[in-house]
Design brief:
The protein is mainly beta. It has a domain at about 30-110 and about 125-150 and about 180-190: Porin (Beta Barrel). About 15% of the residues lie in helices and about 65% in strands. A hairpin with a 2-residue loop joins strand 8 (about 145-165) and strand 9 (about 165-190).
Length: about 200
């Protein structure tokens, strides 16, 4: 009977993964919080979350700004979001969300911009999709700085208007068909669990 118990315990120990390996695997899936410093500098608060999946990741970000002064006719109003699927090429396998990366993204946003003269606002949701390239490097054990640029297609309808005699007078409605850079960022990435050096 004792021999059977000892054999069972030995088999169980051999078949169970080490605690350190299990912990490392769990940490490799821990998400990160992100904020695009370029948006922050433009008075557009934003927040994102990125989920590592081995050398892949899936991220979602949202921005929102609603600044307005009617009398001088200053408007900086926009909100929208981006979904991005990335493939990382890290220098070291243990470094999460580090190194060169390429990705696919989709984006939607709306806006109203005016700076004392002719204004422009989205007449419908603006949308974009394209390819992204970037590079992320470690600035602390649980912090990354990610530089990236996305090039693709943006479409949607938008309107131009002039402030006249206390009213906003519509001038024209146009269709956007833009091919080129549609997003970019200098993004601070905070790993909710720091990578462990082994």
């Amino acid at each position: 009977m004792k021999l059977v118990l000892l054999s069972s315990l030995l088999l169980l120990g051999l078949s169970s993964p080490p605690l350190a390996a299990s912990s490392e695997k769990d940490e490799s899936w821990a998400p990160a919080l992100t904020t695009n410093l370029l948006y922050d500098a433009g008075l557009t608060p934003n927040l994102g979350i990125e989920f590592p999946m081995g050398r892949w990741s899936l991220s979602a970000t949202w921005h929102y700004a609603w600044w307005a002064k009617d009398e001088p006719h200053y408007y900086w109003q926009t909100y929208g979001g981006v979904l991005t699927l990335r493939r990382y090429f890290p220098m070291k396998a243990k470094d999460r969300l580090c190194g060169h990366h390429v990705g696919l993204y989709g984006q939607v946003l709306t806006y109203d911009f005016e700076f004392g003269g002719r204004g422009e606002q989205a007449a419908s949701w603006q949308w974009a999709a394209g390819l992204e390239y970037g590079y992320a490097f470690k600035i602390a054990e649980n912090l990354r700085l990610d530089l990236h640029l996305g090039v693709g297609y943006m479409g949607g309808r938008f309107e131009r208007y002039d402030p006249e005699y206390g009213y906003y007078v519509w001038k024209e409605t146009l269709n956007r068909r833009w091919i080129g850079p549609t997003q970019g960022g200098v993004t601070l990435v905070w790993l909710l669990r720091p990578s462990k050096n082994r």
